[in-house]
Amino acid sequence: MVGVRQFDEDEMIATALDVFWRKGLHDATMQDLAAATGVQRGSLYNAYGDKEAIFLRAFDQYAAQFLDAASSALAQGDTSARLRDFFDMIIVNMTDGTPQRGCLTTRTALDAAISSPDVRQRVQDVLTRLEQLVGKAISATPNRRSTADANRLARVIVTFTRGLAVMERAGYSRKQLRESATTFIDAVIGDA
Amino acid sequence: MVGVRQFDEDEMIATALDVFWRKGLHDATMQDLAAATGVQRGSLYNAYGDKEAIFLRAFDQYAAQFLDAASSALAQGDTSARLRDFFDMIIVNMTDGTPQRGCLTTRTALDAAISSPDVRQRVQDVLTRLEQLVGKAISATPNRRSTADANRLARVIVTFTRGLAVMERAGYSRKQLRESATTFIDAVIGDA
DNA sequence: GTCAATATTGACATTAATGTCAAGAATGAA
DNA sequence: TTCATTCTTGACATTAATGTCAATATTGAC
After folding, report:
1. Where would I find the HTH tetR-type domain in this sequence (chains A, B) (predicted)?
2. A114 Cβ within 7 A of any nucleic strand D atom
3. Is residue B157 part of a domain?
């Protein structure tokens, strides 16, 4: 390699993630990315090809850290405690930043109709893996659920997290989201 | 009135709703609206001012019919039956059309960051009124819930419907959504 | 130190959207 | 029948985005 890249790729992708998280794949422009990263538009095209390629890299980074955090949150305690930690993580994740950034996966999912198969696949992968993590977590503690029941319940729980992401966009506060999550956990797990 | 409008306003708004439902406020263009309605762009600007004004009218029509359908679905039977009908209506609503149109309220909510206060308010109003309808419905049958509990539960139920809307966008089938809704109802209401 | 390979830069072409406007067409009212 | 009012139409100006490219700068390898 001879002419050497003038920017740090990891740093670039991390900054791009921030931009995509705040604006979404569709609304973030190459201008936005260039301005935020300090890398010229032309260089970005040269290095990555197009906006979507940058997004996919950024999203992969996001998905990895998100699933990691979910896994950690789901690791300890009884089922209720695991879910409390899990929902806490999710809610903090989506209500962080000024203004709040919301949930990138959910935002990306909503643009499915105008997204490429690659992007759609990424969203499905995150949700599938999240279902698996939740399924394992609620099966890990002593209970009288069948595996099939646990899987169905895991999907319900993941679906509910998506609902929280929508409610956040609709203006519900962190506190309101937490209350709903608590109510949900109590209703679903409380006496099972 | 002298120069007379060449198109039927109700029909025009109904067609506009279809366009917005399929493409979203942001992605639908005045070209799209002009093509679908057969009314020239200039005439639309003359009649309504801008795209958002058309959207607001279309959304109001959508919200009215949606809340009406929800109200009907929630009217009869015990709590489980009411919720089954309610979720059925919601799921059919979002999985209808080819390709599926999804949920307009949810799609609009996700664009909150780039929407006007008027648009955001419309979304909040729909969700608030939906919570009220659900709250009334689950309080209508004999049960041992306090009003406060019913309201919290109503919000959880509405939040779950939003989750279903996201899952639909992520590619889950009508059947999968129905199964999740059933599991949810059983878990939340089944033995309360 | 030279050079070949790569990155950077700014300009350019293209496409597409919004919103405005002047000119023309149509029609209810007097 | 005339006319004032309103709607319709197509053209225009503006803005903003994507993606390409040729010219230039840089630097590791030999």
Report:
1. 6-66
2. no
3. yes
Q: What is the pTM of this model?
A: 0.95
In chain B, how many domains are there? Answer: 1
Q: Is B71 among the domain residues?
A: yes
B144-170: burial string, b at 16+ Cβ within 10 Å, e else: eeeeebbbbbbbbbbbbbbbbbbbbbb
**B109·A183 Cβ contact <8 A:** no
Spatial separation of the C-alpha atoms in residues A156 and A149, rounded to whole Å: 11
d(CA B14, CA B20): 10
Nucleic strand C near CB of residue A4 (< 7 Å): yes
Considering only residues 7-46 of protein chain A, which place a Cβ less than 7 A from any atom of strand C? 7, 39-43, 46
For residue B28, how far is the Cα from the chain centroid? 17
Phi and psi for A162 in degrees, rounded to 5? -65, -40
Which alpha helices (DSSP H) does B38-116 contain, by range? 41-48, 51-73, 79-95, 104-110
Task: Tell which residue, B93, B177, B99, has the closest CA to residue B130.
Answer: B93
* Residue A191 pLDDT > 60: no
For every residue of A106-117, which 3-state class applies, written as one string? HHHHHCHHHCCH
Which residues on B lie below 8 Å from A170 (Cβ)? 109, 112, 120, 123-124, 127
B73-114 pLDDT tens trace: 999 999 999 999 999 999 999 999 999 999 999 999 999 999
DSSP designation for B190: T
Q: Would you call B124 an interface residue with chain A, using a CB distance cutoff of 8 Å?
A: yes
Residue at B135 is within a domain: yes
Which amino acid does the sequence have at B43?
S
Domain holding B83, by residue range, is: 59-188
Contact between A70 and A130 under an 8 Å Cβ cutoff? The reply is yes
The CATH number of the domain where B63 resides is what?
1.10.357.10
> B-chain residues within 8 Å CB-CB of A191?
191
